[in-house]
Specification:
Length: 102
């Protein structure tokens, strides 16, 4: 099988699609949580997101943690660990202000 490599523009649409993927995966109890977290962490490490996109992701994850604490989200501990991993990288980037404003 031949693997083709294409590039995706790092524009506002890309950020919106990543926010959508995050929101879709939050609260799921499937493999998609790990796939989404790994993908977003890789893009965070490449500084692919604007300040606005990072802020929305932080807000969505914060709401997830609060809802989970209040019993409104019923997922597995594995999922929580994955989201915590993303939260840690996201906050590290935010605090260092290493984002690239698109």
């Amino acid at each position: 099988m031949r693997i083709m490599k294409k590039t995706v523009p790092l524009d506002d649409d890309f950020g919106q699609m990543c926010i959508s993927a995050l929101r879709y995966a939050l609260g799921r109890r499937t493999y998609i949580v790990g796939v989404t977290v790994d993908y977003l962490i890789a893009r965070l490490n490449e500084n692919c997101f604007s300040e606005r996109v990072l802020g929305v992701m932080r807000q969505d994850l914060s709401r997830y943690f609060e809802d989970r604490k209040n019993g409104l989200v019923e997922d597995d501990d594995f999922d929580l660990e994955e989201w915590q991993k993303l939260w840690d990288v996201l906050n590290e980037k935010w605090e260092k202000e290493e984002w690239w404003t698109l």
